[in-house]
Write a structure and sequence with these properties.
4-stranded antiparallel sheet; Rossmann fold; 11 strands; about 280 residues; 9 helices; 7-stranded mixed sheet; globular; single chain; alpha/beta; binds S-adenosylmethionine
Length: about 280
Amino acid sequence: MKPPSPEHWRGVLKPDSIPTPTPEPHQQTEEWFERWFRNPLYLKLYAHRDRTEAEHCVELILRAVASGPRPAPRHALDLACGPGRHSITLSRHGLRVTAVDLSPTLLGHALAAAANEGVEDHIRFLRSDMRHISFHQEFDLAVQLFTSFGYFDSPADDFLVLERVRAALRPGGHYALDLLNEQHLRASLMNTSTKWVDDLEVVERRQIVDDRVEKIITIHTGTEQMEFHESVRLYSPEAIALMLADAGLVPVQWFGDYHGSAFHPQHSARMLVIARAE
Ligand SMILES: C[S@@+](CC[C@H](N)C(=O)[O-])C[C@H]1O[C@@H](n2cnc3c(N)ncnc32)[C@H](O)[C@@H]1O
């Protein structure tokens, strides 16, 4: 990894001129992430993002943080927990988990899955916008996995999330942030693709607009057509490293997939960074 260059972060946002985050924007108009993740079709389309993948990812993170001098983590925050696949896996590894998400639909699935596996007493589920969490040094580990970062219009809101995560961690605790790898995505983006998911025809149109990847998902049910939008800000490794550091989170390890391959800017599909709270 190259050391982070201040220019990259400055290109995104000047740390000394961070604008005030927009107050409760989701109360004014519905954001794409509220509408899409509330719809049960999200789980159908992303069914391949399953428990097996979550197990690899959690095992990698636990191995990575165990290589440091600190005792094994006991209490984890799963931010943007979705249907709970990482929360449940973390609890199976003996951690207490606080799982936060905005989507009532996905939280409902997470709660049902935890109950089904008999781990519901070890996981506290909370509905909140990630910008509004207010934990204070409760956790030794925070995870934010599978592209759950970069959703907001303003990078100031992304930065606010990092600050909230830093406040939630005990000093020396770890944060695992799992993002798309910008460079690889830009080089490999497929503009349009069509697939069948059971009886649904799904057309996905993607483009990169400035520093965001925009996806329009059109779902044909046979009788109906629905359209959803995804929009994610892409961060270079240098920019995210600097943004993390500005929030008091020092990057210590980088992986390029959930099996522990080293991060490679051109070839890695994922950018999983582990940072330590100062
Ligand atoms: C791509 S999914 C990933 C879910 C989960 N981490 C996983 O790997 O299965 C993104 C998640 O972020 C949640 N989310 C989106 N915006 C959020 C916000 N502002 N605050 C909290 N959660 C949010 C969604 O509801 C969804 O569960």
